[in-house]
Amino acid sequence: MSADTKEQLAGLDERIARAVGLLAKARLPLISGLGADVDAVRAALLLAQKTGAAVDHAAAAHIAVELRVTADAGHMATTSAEARNRADTVVFAGPGAIDFADDSGLFATAETPYDWRGDRTVLCLGTGGRVPSSVAAVAATHLVGGPLAGRLGALKAIVAGRTVAGADAALTAAAETLKAARFGVVVVDPADLDRFGFELLHALVKDLNDTTRFTTLPVPASHQGRGANLVSTWTTGGRLRVGFGRGYPEQDDWQFDGTRLAAAGEADVLVWVGPLGPGLPDYATNLPTIALVPPGSGATDSADHVVIEVGVPGVDHGAVLADTVVDGFSFVPASAPSALPTAAAILAAITAGLATGAS
Amino acid sequence: MLIRLKGGRVVDPTQGPSSVRDVWIRDGRVIEAPQGDEPADVVHDVSGKVVMAGAVDVHSHIAGGNVSLARQLLPELHVSEDPASAALPFGTARWSSWEIGRLYAEMGFTTVVEPALTPTAALHTHLELADIPIIDRGALTVVGNDDHFLKLLRDGESRDAIRDAIAYHLKATRGLGIKVINAGGPAAFHSGLRTFDLDDVVPHYGATSRRIVETLLTAAADIGIPHPLHLHANNLGVPGAVDTIKATIAAAEGRPLHFAHIQFYAYGKDADGGMTSAAEEISAAMAAAPNITADVGQVMFGPTVTISLDLMKQWSGKAYASPKKWTIFDGDAEGGGIVPFHYKTSNWINQLQWAIGLELFLRSEDPARMLMTTDHPNGGLFTWYPTILALLMDKELRDRWTAVLPEQAKARTGLMSLEREYTLEEVATMTRSAPAKLLGLPDRGHLGPGAVADVSVYDDNPDRVAMFTGARLVLKDGNPVVRDGKALGWAMGRTHQLSPDYDGAMDRRMTTYLTDRFGVGPSAFAVPDAAFGERENFQVEALLK
Ligand SMILES: [Zn+2]
Questions:
Q1: What superkingdom does the record give (chain B) (predicted)?
Q2: What is the pLDDT of residues B204-237, one digit of tens each?
Q3: How far is A351 from chain B (nearest CA, A)?
Q4: Is residue B23 part of a domain?
Q5: What is the B59 CA–ligand 1 centroid distance (Å)?
Q6: Residue B384 resides in a domain
Q7: ipTM of the complex
């Protein structure tokens, strides 16, 4: 253990006690960020149940678009491995899909266990003219410009056999490409659409399944958004955002929106759980804050800003994370084990401190 | 520590006729009455009460990606409204893992099996199971629709290779048995097919559903899995599906086979193609085939959600979604279909489904071979169990329910003519000893010496619904976990698994395959102990010799 680490750990009890003190007098704590591993999210929810807190996550589009549409209308989706291996038609809808494909290299191989798949037909829809540079085994690439949501609406109408005023040849050809797929996948970043556009996309995909197979691959949420929402789903019965003010979980996207709660002055202390980022939000400046952040975050400790440095999951300590190995959860061992405490352990210590009344 | 359960009427047919006697427990296990006058450290006076082993559920969708997807699809169906007590955080959070454990335990259930452990979601499923409090858990590894397995069939691989591949999946995912869903159907659905029967062929692989089932029956026996192959057969919900069941029984050729939620197949067809009860036919077929067991999948009324890896069935079922929203997830092998459904008393088909389920219970000669499930939540929530037991035990109660059956349903079921009333002993067999034995958990489901001290104590209340809804006392491993129908706190149970050996060549082979397919090697399916931190989560059970 380095001298620096010893110093960090020495101040730990005092900082936890100050965190307990802040929470003990809070009326409505806000727990947010949650760029964290499964154990940290479990511990955060337990602290929320104990304190009546509201709980939000940094991946706003995942909640406001993707998960909202699931609850409103349902959806169709697949895994990244199935998208890579099985899809003979890949639609990149919006610029985020292009970035995801090129950053991840998901389609960079021609190999597939499904030896009947053949080369891929690529359709870029509302990508601002961009095409991915990393896709292998491409038979043909089609490009349809224009606003994404508008193009989805027109395609849905054409696929349904309606005439669309002003439909150009590219759009008509795109509809034929969709219908000709044997197993098509639309790659889409929920951040590129509002919930109405995202619902429209799923309506189109569902329609296509009347005559062929089609599905979607949403770009993974940032900062463990999918994992954190799933932990909430099985722990509280529902995804985030959730509040415990009445002693039981209430799910409400508007009421428990952290940014709103801070701006309206409803939240009076912030617990920012960010071992995997992001950094503290702007509104933390005006709120008493307990920040669980990795070393080097730049957050400074002061009377009503308790900064507790925690290990990075998968680096300082082993942890269960989402979407890092396969879609879903996997255990990621520590790549550089250290003595830094886990966010889960700090949250549990704070909860225990509240239980004993120590402050 | 020595514990004495004093003066209850012990109902456990595995230990002989019911009688008033004491049950003694030392260090979490049932023992013979101690010699001499050794005083008990703890005495629970259960005079006048009914004492049974903790109940066991072989098929209830309580964890995993599809269960959580259902929670996300239908927030309006499980709005929480009661504050949790300090000892039971999240205990009133509806549809949460915590509420599931509490409600099961309060009914006197101590072991529940999740029947859909998909390999790529294995860690997810086990994380959820580990957060279900009080009860012990297990899960059935889903096999038979994945590319790796189907290629073994296509390539004519040896019986040993197939045995090893299934053993690898079972061990890696930490399952307690294996299950196959509409064998070949989900794989065919990915390729665009919309129906799939026993002799249909999976496109690109050349294997029929029949061949998949026969191969898995052989593999299960070769590995020595105590639980019979758990089969979600073809043609779920289709009028005439009784023929599929009979053909599948024939295909088993006397080998142990368990049909999941068989009510959904006990459907005949009249001249117009309309649905009729085929419960009598199913019961006769099962009476003639002692190798076959089933759970019912009883339908109860009200809004629920159907959760299934049978993508084909869910695709056709979405037409009946209520409310009108649904989700289909094309997974790495099966995937999942989530379709909300409302079983209505005003709908004669739903009424007929309800009647057929009860017929299956009442026509089964052996309560050990027709087990109680609702295929939670597909036929209804598991919290309907006390009502189902009451209906089985009380012909008058059944008459009150059947009095309101619509004529179309009445004409198509023989339920009203069945006089049988289940005894407490039959209930104990059906909900305790039989499911425990079927799962390969020999120290559960009974109160003989050596049994795990999972014990449920009930008031002998003529209101059987009240009796089975809230146990007077439940012991888990000898410790009180429920008193007066209420959970006392969060004790945590174990997840039971098998850990079969296989040839080391399969490790290398699967590493190559999983690397090609997912880019990550064995970690694609891995469920390491480290993922559960300090929690001691798993317990390995024995294979058959
Ligand atoms: Zn099921």
A1: Bacteria
A2: 999 999 999 999 999 999 999 999 999 999 999 9
A3: 12
A4: no
A5: 6
A6: yes
A7: 0.97
